[in-house]
Amino acid sequence: MSTWLVTGGAGYIGAHVVRELIDQGIDVVILDDFSAGLRSRIPGGVPVVEADVSNGGAVQNALRGFNVTGVIHLAAKKAAGESVDMPLYYYRENVAGLVSLLESMQVVGVKNFVYSSSAAVYGTPRSNPVKEDEPLLPESPYGETKVIGEWLSRDLAKSSGMNWVALRYFNVAGAAADELGDNSVNNLIPMVFRALENGERPQIFGDDYSTPDGTCIRDYIHVQDLAAAHVAAVGLCERGIGSVDPTVGIAVNVGRGQGVSVREVMDVVSEVIGRNVNAEVVGRRDGDPAETYANVDLSRRVLGWSASKDLSAIVSSAWSAWQSVR
């Protein structure tokens, strides 16, 4: 029987991953410092260790005490704009924290690792859909920390035989249940809902990009589909990834493989809530690529996984979750 430690398991994405693992019969332990996670998201009966990943003693005790066979690492800071203003904070949390976690895994002898990476590793892609072999040219300290995390995983795998999969998330949204909704202040769909709640017009940051309707294009994936990708990555690690990649590790895009513009998202939100959101166009934000969406051939081939939920399902589930706490 396998047991996986999920760092950040009380967070928005983490809580979905925990439930998906449980549904597939995999034992789970959560490690979370609750700086962003919510205890209300944790299913009954799931062991919880309240600690930071940099607390080597607590992490090693958890790995040994629960006979952990693998780690899914989601605990990290993730706001690209904030990382520009606070680079040292992001390097300490995302890089130093990961080094400490990997050291603890090595001390205990845990050999399976699924790493939460990001499409931010690409920066502005040269072409779309972006493939995993695209040059990694991140445009924020946040993106840089995710690249370094992949390098750390790769190098440790080469030296120790650790099996690892890095999942490069695209734009995650939606909810599998009303109590698991996204409360982020930085993600587009909750930003739209928050503006409407405050009697404000949702904002579109620039409509003069070289895209069909002038607004940025992104790849939106339902968080429940993303959680299923983690289960697929767990299975790949446990089977032994060496047959897929000789460096015993691999980085994989996790998206729908379809680009959707910000204006199209606004249109779908309008359809779901039954009124025009009446978005206003404001100036561009620094560092926003015009277009980024995933090539998903590798995820289909090596994970045997692909996303199943469309943008309407994403927005509908997010709206239901948003209303449930209002």
Please provide a brief summary of the model.
With about 325 residues, the protein is of the alpha/beta class.
Using brief descriptors, characterize the structure shown:
seven-stranded parallel sheet, Rossmann fold, 10 helices, globular, single chain, UDP-galactose 4-epimerase, domain 1, 326 residues, two-stranded parallel sheet, alpha/beta
Structure, explained:
It is a single chain. This protein is an alpha/beta fold and 326 residues long. It has two domains: 203 residues, Rossmann fold (3-Layer(aba) Sandwich), CATH 3.40.50; 102 residues, UDP-galactose 4-epimerase, domain 1 (Alpha-Beta Complex). 40% of the residues lie in helices and 17% in strands. It is built from ten helices and 13 strands. Helix 1 crosses helix 7 and helix 2 packs parallel to helix 4. The longest helix has 22 residues. It is globular, with a radius of gyration of 19 Å.
User: What would CATH call the homologous superfamily of the largest domain?
Assistant: NAD(P)-binding Rossmann-like Domain
Q: Characterize the overall form.
A: globular
Secondary-structure arrangement, i.e. CATH architecture of the largest domain: 3-Layer(aba) Sandwich
Strand content: 15-25%
CATH class term of the largest domain: Alpha Beta
Quaternary status of these chains? single chain
Order of the strands making up the biggest sheet: 3-2-1-4-5-6-11
Number of strands: 13
Average pLDDT confidence is: 95
- Rounded radius of gyration (Å): 19 Å
Poorly predicted sequence stretches spanning 5 or more consecutive residues: none
Q: Count of helical segments?
A: 10
What is the string of helix and strand elements?
A: EHEEHEHHEHEEHEEEHEEHEHH
Instruction: Return the domain count.
Output: 2
| Biggest sheet details | 7 strands, parallel
